[in-house]
Amino acid sequence: MIHGEWVKGEGEIMTSQNPFDSQCIWQGAEASRSQVEQAVSAARDAFFALA
């Protein structure tokens, strides 16, 4: 979530598997470096807006 909006990850695919039977529980894309920088910047801006 960046600036209050869900953003699709642009990084590598992550998979969460059930440790009992290795069935895929969830799969999604990681955030890219640029997306992480945008999220940190948005969080910092929101924090200082409340201060």
Describe what you observe in this structure:
The protein has one domain (13-50). It is 35% helix and 22% strand. It contains 1 helix and 2 strands, in the order E-E-H. It has one helix at 33-50, and strands at residues 13-17, 24-29.
Layout of secondary structure:
Blueprint: E1 13-17, E2 24-29, H1 33-50
Antiparallel strand pairs: 1-2
Summed up:
The chain has one helix at residues 33-50; strands at 13-17, 24-29.
Please provide the ordered H/E string of secondary-structure elements: EEH
Range of strand content:
15-25%
Percent helix: 25-40%
Number of domain units? 1
The parts where pLDDT drops under 50 for at least 5 residues are none
| 3D shape | elongated
**Mean pLDDT figure:** 94
> Over the alpha carbons, how many angstroms does the gyration radius reach?
15 Å
Sheet having the most strands = 2 strands, antiparallel
Instruction: Give the CA-CA distance, first to last residue.
Output: 21 Å
How are the strands of the biggest sheet laid out side by side? 1-2
Indicate the structural class. alpha+beta
**What is the number of helical segments per DSSP (H or I, 4+ residues)?**
1
What is the number of beta strands?
2
Any descriptors?
single chain; 51 residues; alpha+beta; two-stranded antiparallel sheet; 1 helix; 22% strand; elongated
